[in-house]
Amino acid sequence: MWSALALTTLLPLAIAINVPQTYINTAIARTIELGGLTTQITTQYNIKPLDNSPGEYHLALAGENDFEPAWWEVSLGGKKLEGRLLDESPPTVAIQLGKTKKDEVITLSLTQVLAHTSTPLPAEIEQRDSQYLVWNTNSTYVDSWYPTDVERVKIRAPHPSILSYSSVPETYTRDNTITKSGGTLTLGPFHSLPPTLGTSQNKIAEQKPFSVHYETKDPVIGIRNLQRSAEVSHWGANLNIQDYIELVNEGPKLKGHFSRLAHQQSKFHASVPAQILTGFTLKLPPTAHSPYYYDYIGNVSTSHFRQGSTPATVQKNKKVRTSPRIVEGTLELKPRYPILGGWNYSFTVGYDIPLGDVLKTDNEKNRKVLAVPFLTGLKDVVVDNAELKVILPEGASDVQVYTPFAVDSIEHSIHKTYLDTTGRYAITLKKTQSTENHAQNVYVTYHYPLSAQLQKPLTIASLVGSLFLLGMGLRRVNYSIEKK
Amino acid sequence: MAPKAKSPPGTPLKTTPLSTPLPRKASADILSKSSLAVDDETLPSGNTTLKVRKLAYPLPTHISPTTINNTESLLRFIILALICGAAIGSRLFAVIRFESVIHEFDPWFNYRASKVLVNEGFYEFWNWFDPTAWYPLGRTVGTTLYPGLMVTAGLIWHFLRLINMPVDIRNVCVMLAPGFAGLTAWTTYLFTTEMSTPSAGLLAAAFIGIAPGYISRSVAGSYDNEAIAIFLLMGAFYSWIKAMKTGSALWGMVTALFYGWMVAAWGGYVFITNMIPLHAFVLILMGRFNNRLYTAYSSWYVIGTISSMQVPFVEFLPIRTSEHMAALGVFGLLQLIAFVEIVRRLVPGKQFQLLLRAFVVLVFVISFAALVVLTFSGWIAPFAGRFYSLWDTGYAKVHMPIIASVSEHQPTAWPSFFFDLEMLIFFFPAGVFWCFKELRDEQIFIIIYATLSAYFAGVMVRLMLVITPVVCVAAAIAFSKLLEAYIDPVIPESEEELEEATAHQPMSKAKAKKIAAAQQNKSEFNFTGILGGKGEKGVFGLDTRFAVVSVLSLFLFLFVYHCTWVTSSAYSSPSVVLASRNPDGSQNIIDDFREAYYWIRQNTEKDSVVMSWWDYGYQIAGMADRPTLVDNNTWNNTHIATVGKAMSSNEDAAYPILRKHDVDYVLVIFGGLLGYSGDDINKFLWMVRIAQGEWPDEVQEHNYFTQRGEYAVDERATPTMKNSLMYKMSYYRFHELFGGHPAQDRVRGQQIPSTGIQLDTLDEAFTSENWIVRIYKVKKEDPIGRELKAVSSFEGGKKLKKSASSSNAALASGAGGGRKSRPNM
């Protein structure tokens, strides 16, 4: 397998991979949930090996010339499967299915999140107009390296009003091509579909682009930049999380100008147009406390925080809550001004978490294990550039990072802040195109001896002490030019 | 007194009496020599007493003087530290109530300049040309500001960075004023200690720490020149007194350094420039010239002037303007006198001395005449306009409406003296009186300072700040004298007892001495009672002491209460953020200014030019980061008048002005919905007046008043008013908000007519939540060359009629195709 990997990396990319036709898809059912900036796709593959030792199953994540989805996961019977992503176009995962027999049907399921697949149409609307998006894909059929017996694709729009959609060629359909019921479109079923990918030796089904023009009732929000810094303090037993967020309303741009009068009237009638973002809610960890919310010119007073609770905290002060569940903290944020189409708003949000909740000590190896959430998920929001900077306490050494997904870069650096002498160890992780699904913990392990913990108090104490000594000495010197 | 003067034979009468009326040290010396003295040193006031003293209340005995001294200095240190803490703490209302935010208008510019300093370095700051201010002229900021404040903040910031304390520059700026207020308390303590006793010093420090007159300019977030200036003022005065008393060139140099820092920090440095020479001059006139004065003054003047000339904004002013001539003149006079003194010492002969005196007077007169000639020939600039307005309070209103339009340049109302200084204003004359009574060199300083600043404070509200320190010092002196007299436990002897004592103890040196002193004083003017300060006169009973001391303490408590209340209610509003109460009592924060400024910052083109009245210029530059036409640095009257004209003219006349200045957005402040009284309609008359000053034919104030002379915005408003750009922008679509009900303007309490206002040349771009800030976008010329009025009536579906607009507008918009469009848009 290593040689195969080496071979694929060595070979020029122009030569497409040759996938041995050892499998057949007996049925594929795909559901596409349209949203604002993201599209959720879940696909069920019923596959059947044609051979007793069929090797890896090649699962195509996207069509020819398409990019890898922002997020994907393959699972078999509810268990997550690790795949090997090939360095090829189209993006493909090679999956080891273990021991399989001939004609045994296996059900794989693939979850994908695509980013920036919908664009506003019309691109400019007036303040009170409703907003429509058009969703485009290059693949009408599910991309696959193997032939498929039956295939069905469902597209669900967030709202029943679908203005238009493109047509599907009747090549593989028997009775109906597209059925529309409410906000759901069903394509197919398609029968006896040849593989859509592969070398030209086989018969290949030709992919056609497909688009849906639909209405959405939620503002289309994108985050251009998210810079999170997580600062660990062992003395304060605290993990401070601070996010700098550059938010953009990616919906149709505002035509003309914003009228406060119209906005207040629509608020009065409780019919604020869908494109306007007036506030949003962040889910914080249950024990998060002391949140703050400010922007470049100061504190934003319009926020509300409801602290979460865990069973442990409930036991401590029973008066507050009675439910023994874990309740997440909620931070309701209201921007300074309503964010209309095309408007920007950048701000900073931060909060503290007790260190005990996110830091564990591995006593055997004498190491600390820290869990830092990569980002705070917002539904249907794509973060174009996410950055996480974990700042460890001064004196931490032997640092290792474990990420739950691949990131673009990991940098190690030194960060100097409050009264540091040698500086703190900092790790910067960067990733493009993150979604709600990337709101997972990044684990950092490090060695942190007691001497490092005492470093700062001792340094400062000795410095201040020597200053006093110096003062005492200088006080006893006579500076007078004349001798007394 | 006469009977007491009967001294027994053998008493050494020829002992020279003490010349200064502070017999404490001398008498203590005598007492310690005599075996009769017991524990006199324990008393802070140290009045001369005899062995057999009656005490109103018992004092602990058998405490060694060293212990007492050490305890005293420790207590003094602790008290001073607590005073500094209180001074800082009472300035934090705004931070605790709102947040760490820069206040008001000017501080926003200072903050912005500080950011340039720390982000781009000192030389960039020094040479900073700001193209975004006074568009399209720009402003050479580096040479038109007092850099002291920013440099101070920058140094603190760099120091904190050096010890790895990366504090945001904003927090340094916000906390600078409270921090320096703590230092001011400390320097005031030192200054007052020089004048009187350390206990008076502590009182003065406590007073200045919490006096509202000073707090009004130095709350956290009020990042303005005054924030550090009062510290520098007191520092300079303290070191001047020190230099004058010791004759040390070192202290003279310290004075000069404080002065140099002050020049770099605040335009009010002219006060020191005139105060110190005046003090020296008065001392000379009183015949108190000596070498110490000569050394102190000369070292201060030379080093101070050179250091002040390092500030680009000041440069050659110290030798070219009238305000600085007094210092130069006194410097020259001192040289002459010193020269004459030397010659007189060497050359005896009365006639020669007379000649020399004549010479001094002649030189003085000639140089004064030269000064006058130079001033009139224009080589030395006459006094600046603001300076004249100090003498003639009506001057500014006639000649400089911009200066007169600023509320802090108005004459002070009488209640504000009490509001800002409370009981101190009553104790202040008493303290000055005490200074008169002792009249040492340094106390003359207090007298001059008190006289001058009392006048200035009456002329301009802003200068309340200058009087506050001297009021605190003088009041503290009076207060501590009172307290000393009434806390002192010694009961004076009644006359019979005294005579008895004289008879029984003929050998008491101390007593004899005192009697001798009393005899000596007999010829002078003497006060009776406690004002006389003599030992045998004083307070008898414990009840009197208790009554007076408790009333004084009550005064002090009320003072603290008053100061806290004033600070909390009047001086701690950032004015960028407004607070109100919800019906349920919770605080509701009105944040319209920042909402609008942040909207501009985030959602307009980076080079959009924003036009607003000059009050908001610094805030727009600081928070919205966009070019502005005019700002709070009101250096160009014409430019401000242009904006005033655009605001007060009708659309046809205003549009060409807007287009010629590349204005993209116009911002107005409108308080009618919320009842925010500091809005543009209320400032409108000043815009009209300032515009009228430049274009008396086009803008006339009387056109904005109704026939009956009222300033109305309702039905009665004149057509000129109703058609003015300001009126239209303020009330555009306002009546629609009331859904058919009469539209009420809550500031002026008038009903706005519900006839719709039509704007042809502007589009409403943004209005903040409570309608306080309204932003309009200026339309570009119509692409096919129509007039904008015609365009809007065409789009409104009306019949196109021949519009009778002024030829002015036709020129501007009709020739739209031929006009040069803006290069970078």
UniProtKB/TrEMBL annotation, chain A:
<keyword id="KW-0808">Transferase</keyword>
<comment type="subunit">
    <text>Component of the oligosaccharyltransferase (OST) complex.</text>
</comment>
<keyword id="KW-0256">Endoplasmic reticulum</keyword>
<feature type="signal peptide">
    <location>
        <begin position="1"/>
        <end position="16"/>
    </location>
</feature>
<dbReference type="InterPro" id="IPR007676">
    <property type="entry name" value="Ribophorin_I"/>
</dbReference>
<keyword id="KW-0812">Transmembrane</keyword>
<dbReference type="GO" id="GO:0016740">
    <property type="term" value="F:transferase activity"/>
</dbReference>
<comment type="similarity">
    <text>Belongs to the OST1 family.</text>
</comment>
<dbReference type="GO" id="GO:0008250">
    <property type="term" value="C:oligosaccharyltransferase complex"/>
</dbReference>
<comment type="function">
    <text>Subunit of the oligosaccharyl transferase (OST) complex that catalyzes the initial transfer of a defined glycan (Glc(3)Man(9)GlcNAc(2) in eukaryotes) from the lipid carrier dolichol-pyrophosphate to an asparagine residue within an Asn-X-Ser/Thr consensus motif in nascent polypeptide chains, the first step in protein N-glycosylation. N-glycosylation occurs cotranslationally and the complex associates with the Sec61 complex at the channel-forming translocon complex that mediates protein translocation across the endoplasmic reticulum (ER). All subunits are required for a maximal enzyme activity.</text>
</comment>
<dbReference type="GO" id="GO:0018279">
    <property type="term" value="P:protein N-linked glycosylation via asparagine"/>
</dbReference>
<keyword id="KW-0732">Signal</keyword>
<dbReference type="Pfam" id="PF04597">
    <property type="entry name" value="Ribophorin_I"/>
</dbReference>
<keyword id="KW-1133">Transmembrane helix</keyword>
<protein>
    <recommendedName>
        <fullName>Dolichyl-diphosphooligosaccharide--protein glycosyltransferase subunit 1</fullName>
    </recommendedName>
</protein>
<keyword id="KW-0472">Membrane</keyword>
<comment type="pathway">
    <text>Protein modification; protein glycosylation.</text>
</comment>
UniProtKB/TrEMBL annotation, chain B:
<keyword id="KW-1133">Transmembrane helix</keyword>
<dbReference type="Pfam" id="PF21436">
    <property type="entry name" value="STT3-PglB_core"/>
</dbReference>
<feature type="domain" description="STT3/PglB/AglB core">
    <location>
        <begin position="607"/>
        <end position="659"/>
    </location>
</feature>
<comment type="function">
    <text>Catalytic subunit of the oligosaccharyl transferase (OST) complex that catalyzes the initial transfer of a defined glycan (Glc(3)Man(9)GlcNAc(2) in eukaryotes) from the lipid carrier dolichol-pyrophosphate to an asparagine residue within an Asn-X-Ser/Thr consensus motif in nascent polypeptide chains, the first step in protein N-glycosylation. N-glycosylation occurs cotranslationally and the complex associates with the Sec61 complex at the channel-forming translocon complex that mediates protein translocation across the endoplasmic reticulum (ER).</text>
</comment>
<keyword id="KW-0460">Magnesium</keyword>
<feature type="transmembrane region" description="Helical">
    <location>
        <begin position="325"/>
        <end position="343"/>
    </location>
</feature>
<feature type="transmembrane region" description="Helical">
    <location>
        <begin position="227"/>
        <end position="243"/>
    </location>
</feature>
<dbReference type="GO" id="GO:0018279">
    <property type="term" value="P:protein N-linked glycosylation via asparagine"/>
</dbReference>
<feature type="transmembrane region" description="Helical">
    <location>
        <begin position="417"/>
        <end position="436"/>
    </location>
</feature>
<dbReference type="GO" id="GO:0004579">
    <property type="term" value="F:dolichyl-diphosphooligosaccharide-protein glycotransferase activity"/>
</dbReference>
<protein>
    <recommendedName>
        <fullName>Dolichyl-diphosphooligosaccharide--protein glycosyltransferase subunit STT3</fullName>
        <ecNumber>2.4.99.18</ecNumber>
    </recommendedName>
</protein>
<dbReference type="GO" id="GO:0008250">
    <property type="term" value="C:oligosaccharyltransferase complex"/>
</dbReference>
<keyword id="KW-0325">Glycoprotein</keyword>
<dbReference type="Pfam" id="PF02516">
    <property type="entry name" value="STT3"/>
</dbReference>
<feature type="transmembrane region" description="Helical">
    <location>
        <begin position="144"/>
        <end position="160"/>
    </location>
</feature>
<feature type="transmembrane region" description="Helical">
    <location>
        <begin position="172"/>
        <end position="191"/>
    </location>
</feature>
<dbReference type="InterPro" id="IPR048307">
    <property type="entry name" value="STT3_N"/>
</dbReference>
<feature type="transmembrane region" description="Helical">
    <location>
        <begin position="197"/>
        <end position="215"/>
    </location>
</feature>
<keyword id="KW-0328">Glycosyltransferase</keyword>
<feature type="region of interest" description="Disordered">
    <location>
        <begin position="1"/>
        <end position="23"/>
    </location>
</feature>
<feature type="transmembrane region" description="Helical">
    <location>
        <begin position="546"/>
        <end position="566"/>
    </location>
</feature>
<feature type="transmembrane region" description="Helical">
    <location>
        <begin position="293"/>
        <end position="313"/>
    </location>
</feature>
